[in-house]
């Protein structure tokens, strides 16, 4: 099976969208909704959406694995955003009735500083060797997750750089109905993007861990294929999300043959998220760590240590994994 695309830019919706002047169910204090029409987006058609691989859109925070200090590292998403003066100028441009002209950014002066180790996302547009802000006025990028950086402590909890491993959730290779948590070499994940999910990420829609004992995991983008998707019609997708067990997900991401990624979110169809019973929590999960080969005593408070103690155990649902670390 071909390797699926990585998330290095904002994904367009599979349908043309329209703005409705109603309070958003997705973002608090946003006075409008972005809803899908019944017209398929030309970007989806150009990318041959009908031959794309549909996968589950997982609700977490985006991460990236690439080299840092000569070894594979986990990187956290950090968008470079405009300073107050530039943002005010940009918003005035957006809301102007005469905004047919292109907005001019001065990347050197208009944006807040970022750490020296920050890198721009791979697929963003460049002009004269400098990254060009997207339609929201942001420059998507990444910063490496250092071991003792408190800002990214939940990212740090799922990696061990000494042994080049990461805690990954995916389907069991021999049973698509079974999930598996395993220690995967970071070198096997190089140049891939993943979603970090867990207790302290995005309100924890999958119910993992607890405040006292947080649990976080990485899921490679495209890991969960959707097997029985209906035809690409607004009403058919709406019915699928509402009535099918497999539709109890945040959304769909289509991985197209040209590397393009196309999405639809439940909110695009006027549906709520998060929901009580997610499809991810309808499957059993097995622990497959095999850390004995490292001949190393992991910190007793780390997730790797805990999972090594329950190696080969099976749980009826992901959110049933509770522990004391």
From TrEMBL:
Catalytic activity, reaction form: ATP + (ribonucleotide)n-3'-hydroxyl + 5'-phospho-(ribonucleotide)m = (ribonucleotide)n+m + AMP + diphosphate
Main EC class the enzyme belongs to: ligase
Cofactor(s) listed: Mg(2+); Mn(2+)
GO MF terms, alphabetically ordered: ATP binding; RNA ligase (ATP) activity
Listed EC numbers: 6.5.1.3
Record-linked Pfam families: RLIG1
Keywords attached to this entry: ATP-binding, Ligase, Nucleotide-binding, RNA repair
InterPro entries: RLIG1
Keyword Chaperone found: no
Biological processes, Gene Ontology terms: hematopoietic progenitor cell differentiation; response to reactive oxygen species; RNA repair
Function: Functions as an RNA ligase, in vitro. The ligation reaction entails three nucleotidyl transfer steps. In the first step, the RNA ligase reacts with ATP in the absence of nucleic acid to form a covalent ligase-AMP intermediate and release pyrophosphate. In step 2, the ligase-AMP binds to the nucleic acid and transfers the adenylate to the 5'-PO4 terminus to form an adenylylated intermediate. In step 3, the RNA ligase directs the attack of the 3'-OH on the 5'-phosphoanhydride linkage, resulting in a repaired 3'-5' phosphodiester and release of AMP.
PANTHER family, per database record: CHROMOSOME 28 C12ORF29 HOMOLOG (PTHR31219), RNA LIGASE 1 (PTHR31219:SF2)
Entry protein name: RNA ligase 1
């Amino acid at each position: 099976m071909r390797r699926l695309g990585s998330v290095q830019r904002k994904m367009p919706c599979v349908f043309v969208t329209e703005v409705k002047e109603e309070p958003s169910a997705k973002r608090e204090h946003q006075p409008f909704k972005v809803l899908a029409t019944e017209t398929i987006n030309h970007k989806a058609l150009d990318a041959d959406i009908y031959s794309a691989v549909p996968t589950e859109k997982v609700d977490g925070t985006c991460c990236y694995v690439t080299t840092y200090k000569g070894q594979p590292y986990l990187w956290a998403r950090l968008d470079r955003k405009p300073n107050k003066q530039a943002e005010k100028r940009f918003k005035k441009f957006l809301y102007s009735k005469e905004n047919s002209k292109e907005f001019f950014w001065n990347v050197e002066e208009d944006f807040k500083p970022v750490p020296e180790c920050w890198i721009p996302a791979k697929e963003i547009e460049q002009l004269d060797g400098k990254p060009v802000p997207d339609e929201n006025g942001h420059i998507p990028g990444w910063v490496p997750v250092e071991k003792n950086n408190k800002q990214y402590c939940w990212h740090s909890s799922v990696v061990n750089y000494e042994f080049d491993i990461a805690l990954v959730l995916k389907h069991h290779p021999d049973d698509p109905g079974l999930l598996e948590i395993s220690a995967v070499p970071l070198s096997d994940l190089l140049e891939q993007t993943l979603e970090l999910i867990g207790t302290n990420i995005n309100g924890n829609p999958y119910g993992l861990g607890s405040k006292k004992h947080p649990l976080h995991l990485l899921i490679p983008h495209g890991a969960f294929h959707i097997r029985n998707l209906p035809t690409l019609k607004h009403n058919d997708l709406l019915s699928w999300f509402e009535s099918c067990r497999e539709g109890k997900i945040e959304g769909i991401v289509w991985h197209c043959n040209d590397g393009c990624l196309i999405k639809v979110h439940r909110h695009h169809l006027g549906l709520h998220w998060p929901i009580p019973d997610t499809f991810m929590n309808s499957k059993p999960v097995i622990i497959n760590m095999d850390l004995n080969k490292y001949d190393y005593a992991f910190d007793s408070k780390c997730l790797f240590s805990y999972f090594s103690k329950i190696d080969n155990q099976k749980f009826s649902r992901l959110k049933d994994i509770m522990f004391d670390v």
